[in-house]
Amino acid sequence: MIEFSREGAIWQATINRPDKANSLTHEMLVNLAQFMEDAQSARAVILTGNGKVFSAGADLKEAQAGLAVSDIWERLSGAIAALPGLSICALNGTLAGGAMGMALACDLRIAVPDAKFFYPVMKLGFLPQPSDPARMSALIGPSRTKLI
Predict the structure, then answer these.
(1) pLDDT value at 120 more than 80
(2) What one-character DSSP code corresponds to residue 89?
(3) Are 57 and 23 a contacting pair, CB within 8 Å?
């Protein structure tokens, strides 16, 4: 589900659920948050996915059961943003939904040329993570953020 590795001061987390578009379960999010909270000594942390999709966001079954509004998303993005070392989101493909918060919280986002970005949370009837609008506005400006 999530593969964690450490090579010296470089830590990496790889979302490895390509058969489900790397959608995230509550357990996966808790494990990612704990990894990021433990990465205080890392000089760099890389977050990536396996396959053609970085992450489709929440697993749909778990989203309908409450994961879409869980505070675990904010815990994870807050842990990433608080890292003292460099955080890099290596976007191997499509990024959607709740996974957007992870990418927004990273210092750098590097994407393959054919990566697509979707933020459908409001169309699905949910509010974005509390920190997402401010982070997105800082990156692309308030006008573009409001369009999204």
Answers:
(1) no
(2) E
(3) yes
Q: Looking at residue 100, which CATH number applies to its domain?
A: 3.90.226.10
Domain hosting 24: range is 2-147
Rounded-to-integer distance, Cα 129 and Cα 119, Å: 11
Quick one: 59 exposed, middle or buried, by C-beta within 10 A (0-12, 13-18, 19+)? buried
Strand 94-96 vs strand 10-15: parallel, antiparallel, or unpaired?
unpaired
Regarding pTM above 0.85, the answer is yes
Per the structure, the count of domains in the chain is 1
Q: How far is CA 122 from the centre of its chain?
A: 17
Say if CB 114 and CB 93 are below 8 A apart: yes
